[in-house]
Design goal:
The protein has about 475 residues and is of the alpha/beta class. Helix content is about 25%, strand content about 25%. Strand 1 and strand 2 form a beta hairpin. The longest helix is centred in the middle third of the chain and has 18 residues, at about 185-200.
Amino acid sequence: MPKTPRAAHRCTECGWETAKWVGRCGECQAWGSVVEAAAPVLRAAAGPVTRPAVPISEVSVEDSAFRSSGVPELDRVLGGGLVPGAAILLAGEPGVGKSTLLLEVAAQTARVHRRTLYVTGEESASQVRLRADRTGGVQDELFLAAETDLGAVLTHIEEVRPALLVVDSIQTISAPGLDSTPGGVSQVKEVAAALIRVAKTRNITTVIVGHVTKDGSIAGPRVLEHVVDVVLHFEGDRNSRFRMVRAMKNRFGPVDEVGCFDLSSEGISAVTDPTGLFVEHHGRQVPGTCVAVSMEGRRPLLAEVQALVTPSSSERPRRTTSGLDGSRIAMVLAVLQQHCGLRLHMHDVFASTVGGAKVTEPASDLAVAVAVASATRGVPAPLGVVAMGEIGLAGELRKVRDLPQRIAEAARLGFAVAVVPGERREQGVASVPRTVEGMRVIEVPDVASALKLLGVVSQGGLNPHAEAV
């Protein structure tokens, strides 16, 4: 008799099929995503609908209006506030402050008499109460439940009927009837589907906390990021109190917007003007420093770039960076050596930002070049100058986006001169300065012209006076 064909196995991430089970998908290289394919089912027939389709112009938007979370910086990231029925995924490294932030959001929501349910699967109820006492988050409309079973969580939702639901975290909640451990692919998919279904049907704003892997990506199946409405990343350095919430996906507002926070023992507070944290105010001119203006979402942030160049006794000089993109630093150093006459192949180069800021935008290339050239020659750049521009491999400066907003922010903080990319000219000289937002804006065509303008280098080499601007 002919043998019955074995059931195929399919990857839950990309749909790749194989005749036998393997631990790693051969297509998307995901671990533990290959499961036995279910038996084919009959084609679905037409069935009853929950509500008839209506013209889009007749759909009411009042039920989906933004409601403030009570934390202005989070409202900025979300595009205006919390939307009823929205599913929000907040991910971040352990200890970065996810639970503290969401407890503050829950307390602020309960303070305006909107019932809130905080479900914790990682801590006991008494531990969360201790944090709430420390941060001032004890409110009558804030309900707390310590559960790890999905059925119990759904029962709490039926009894409390909250306007805001916080689940901390989804990797600790398990669905009954599944053999896999909590945090597994099938468990996370089932729990997320149930919570999102309740959020949509009952118009409950649901915030789900997610873990991250070693490389910083969200743990669990990638489908989790697709089914939620908003994906937020909580970022921060363990050595600093400064934290940033970045929107990676947002169906209700802009993407890549950021919110700034200060995490302390008293809780978490919004930082509405974080620029001062990343700029060191020197009383005198210091070689090896320059101020860059980067865009974090729609917000311009000033950050000071510092460089140190020392002779190296090694055959392979060191290139060490902190808060900057190492590959772009290597490119900037090559351009400085090739087009500006700076001999850096026998020197160690150290480049970093002040205050733990992370500046990876190409618009900071010119500030890095000025700082490195200033450290190499030992000549400080003039005070009150900001430099913006992307450097090409030919040494040219490329224009950057949102230049008026960057200049306005620098002018607000007291800077007097901005060196920006301009049109390339035959002589390679700067254009006539113009005044924008109270600042002198000088356009330069290439990085060599910018360094000569700032007095960091000159035609003959060292220019100790730096009187160009």
